[in-house]
Amino acid sequence: MEYRIDFRVGHSEVGAHGRMRVVNAVNRFQDIAGEHADSLGLGVRDLISKGYTWVLYQMRLTFSRIAVAGEELTVRTWYRPERNLYSLRNFSMEDACGKRIMFAESSWVVLDLKKGRPVRLGAAMPASYEKNRAEEFPAGFTEVPELDDPDTEILFNVRLHDLDINRHVNNARYLEWALEAIPMEVLGSSRPAVVEALFRAPARYGEVIVSQVKKVEDVYGVYLHRLQTGKSREVCALIRTEWTGN
């Protein structure tokens, strides 16, 4: 079953170049995913009461163009279980004419809060989960490469404002921190075409995050990113971004 919402891009959702920030687009996707899950009794609050929660594992964003302030948009989402291990969820962001401007694929797991590890979907999901699954489901995840010998790194302190309901850093924040390390001349002259992320470990309040970036040699506009904690150097996320001209 598909779920959809209409919205207008707020002025607070666009950056210095007048286009919707990636972090705000991802937050819109996370919001509609939460609303859809809540409507089916599958939301985070429903799961937490049973000792579980949803965790985003992987995401791939593909941009045809970037939305601007005041634009009227529609976001649609649908999901499908995969091998009783992952919940695949897709998103489509479309303009007022129904033309897709952004597509996102994501993979989610259910985490046992006490044991700190994923469980099979069948152990945590009510019957409504299977009843409302979608059958048509393209998935195009690719491996996100490890980064070595970074060109640049920036430090960020995890603030209370960065946390989600699970008291972990909001996944969209990792993308924001990754893009912050991109050279300013690239950010000023290009826009994202593809953003791929693999989320490995949660970061918590008070930790320092190191955002590292390396340009892929001999490939135009492709960067590898790694976000890790400052003390233990535990990798929180691996990200790959592709950029194209404005």
Account of the 3D structure:
This protein is of the alpha+beta class and 246 residues long. The chain has helices spanning 22-39, 44-48, 121-124, 127-131, 171-180, 184-189; strands spanning 3-8, 52-63, 72-82, 86-94, 100-112, 117-119, 152-157, 190-199, 208-215, 222-229, 235-245. Helix 1 (22-39) packs antiparallel against helix 5. The longest helix is centred in the N-terminal third of the chain and has 18 residues, at 22-39. The model has no long low-confidence stretch (mean pLDDT 93).
Q: What portion of the residues fall into strands of 2 or more residues?
A: 35-45%
What sequence of helices (H) and strands (E) makes up the elements? EHHEEEEEHHEHHEEEE
What gyration radius follows from the Cα positions, in whole Å?
18 Å
- In helices, the fraction of residues equals 10-25%
Query: What is the tally of beta strands?
Result: 11
Which whole number gives the mean pLDDT?
93
Contiguous uncertain segments of 5+ residues: none
